[in-house]
Design brief:
The protein is α/β, with parallel strands linked by helices. It has helices spanning about 1-20, 40-50, 125, 145-155, 180-190, 200-205, 230-235, 255-265, 280, 320-330, 370-375, 455-465; strands at about 30-35, 60-65, 75-90, 105, 115, 135-140, 165-175, 205-210, 240-245, 270-275, 275, 285-290, 295-300, 305-310, 315, 335-340, 380-385, 395, 400-405, 410, 420-430, 435-445, 450.
Length: about 475
């Protein structure tokens, strides 16, 4: 009898504990609650995870919220989607707040053929925590780490573009720190005087490029295209990483000055493309690999003089067979290919007033449009003209993009409005993909100080250039 009583007590206690704690045969599975309104596609993904076969120990509440600033995530939260405002590639406007409506797309669909807009002055690819609309999904469960995270992590734990994995490259136009700038340097005594208004902007890029046409020489004067050696400080002040030597004036001060200039670049860890101490050295492509993106820089002198074919210093002469082979090899490596061309120079130095003759790419001698497009057809992703002393138009073409001329970043031709301007191309690469190229126009004044144009002037000027793009 005692054993029967003990057995009854044991069984009652066993089932009583299970009932009170809802374990064992009395266990109530956790329930999935969807708090708020869910888009059909969001709900479909979630129900594909939390199927009838999935048994949870604890309830989970799922909610989705939107934010205009990147939120600080807590346990159970994921940035589910980032959406950005865009406009047409050729639209000169830059900010979302200028539009009553703008197309909003997932960040994963952004590429260089669409123009990313800022939101209230915040440009996502510069800030990464503003300038976009952030969709956050939250899984609220007492057992998130044990139960929910293994189920949802593969779907929602995404890698997003951020400063650590987006490679930024500033590509600038003609630089020739010479002639009147030599005289001005003697007056001011500090070569960073010329760069101080634009230095911080350019140094913010991972890599900064310019096409410098003047070699350093102790014989630099106000009359020649030779550069006072102190001007190396202008270049280091903008954080110069890549110097292009395709120009036709690098030998103006003699071969020795050209060789010494290359040594100065090397001493300052500035990479060289499109020129060298010999023809073989000048022909070397520049291969870059940073932040999971490979870039091959190819730079050629087609027609302006200054190329080398032997053991003397000079620019890399364009050769069709070599160009095709080098582009193909770079594409085989999986690199993005940037081709810079020193083309025939556009000459429209006829007035102290505005002259848009050079805006249209075929204003130069030869078939500039056909030649640049041919380079895209060979496989180049970006083709840039680096001989134009005045900015020229730009266009999407085939699978790439062409900027026909960037104008003068640093130079002394301050009397023609066209020659005082340039375009800075801000390239943004992510996992080997060109996300965007943001165009930032500049101008220098009679004191040769280069600065970014204000928003209104930039919009006017880019509209002018875009309106002259070639017919497709």
């Amino acid at each position: 009898m005692v054993f029967v009583i003990l057995a009854v007590v044991f069984v009652a206690g066993f089932f009583g504990v299970q009932f009170v704690t809802k374990t064992g045969v009395f266990h109530v599975p956790g329930v999935v609650y969807y708090d708020g309104d869910f888009a059909d596609e969001d709900l479909a993904v979630l129900k594909g995870i939390f199927t009838d076969e999935v048994e949870l120990d604890k309830d989970v509440h799922i909610s989705i919220t939107n934010s205009s600033a990147r939120p600080e995530l807590t346990e159970g939260e994921y940035i589910y989607e980032i959406n950005v405002p865009i406009t047409d590639f050729y639209d000169a406007r830059t900010d979302r707040n200028e539009f009553e409506e703008a197309e909003i797309i997932p960040l994963s669909e952004l590429d260089f053929t669409k123009k990313l807009l800022a939101i209230d002055g915040e440009y996502y690819l510069d800030t990464f925590d503003k300038g976009a609309y952030y969709k956050v999904i939250k899984f609220d469960s007492e057992k998130f780490a044990e139960e929910i995270k293994p189920l949802v992590d593969a779907t929602y734990n995404k890698k997003w573009p951020e400063k650590s994995n987006v490679l930024t490259l500033a590509q600038t136009g003609v630089t020739a720190l010479s002639r009147g700038m030599n005289q001005k340097l003697d007056e001011v005594g500090d070569a960073t005087y010329f760069s101080k208004e634009v230095a911080d902007f350019l140094k913010n890029f991972d890599l900064t490029h310019t096409s410098n046409e003047a070699s350093f020489s102790d014989y630099a004067t106000s009359e020649n295209i030779c550069s006072d050696p102190r001007f190396i400080n202008t270049l280091t002040d903008i954080g110069l990483d890549i110097v292009e030597l395709t120009g036709n004036h690098n030998q103006d001060c003699g071969d020795e000055a050209a060789r010494n200039t290359i040594d100065i670049y090397n001493e300052n860890n500035i990479k060289i493309v499109g020129g060298g101490k010999t023809a073989e050295e000048a022909a070397q492509p520049l291969e870059l690999k940073e932040k999971n993106t490979g870039i091959t820089f190819l730079a050629y002198n087609l027609s302006t003089g200054g190329a080398t074919d032997d053991e003397t210093p000079g620019a890399n002469r364009y050769d069709e067979e070599n160009a095709a082979s080098e582009i193909a090899a770079a594409k085989e490596r999986g690199d993005k290919v940037i081709v810079d061309i020193q083309y025939y120079e556009c000459s429209a130095y006829v007035s102290e007033y505005e002259d848009n003759t050079c805006d249209y790419a075929n204003s130069a001698a030869g078939d500039q449009v056909g030649f640049f497009r041919h380079l895209i057809e060979l496989g180049a992703d970006i083709v840039v003209g680096t001989s134009a002393h005045q900015p020229q138009t730009y266009e999407l073409y085939g699978d790439g993009v062409i900027y026909y001329g960037l104008g003068n970043l640093f130079f002394d031709q301050a009397w023609w409005p066209g020659t005082t301007r340039s375009l800075i191309l801000g390239h943004y690469f992510y996992d080997g993909k060109l996300l965007q190229t943001k165009i930032s126009p500049t101008a220098y004044d009679e004191n040769y100080q280069t600065r970014l144009l204000d928003a209104e002037t930039s919009e006017w000027f880019l509209n002018r250039l875009a309106s002259e793009r070639p017919a497709q």
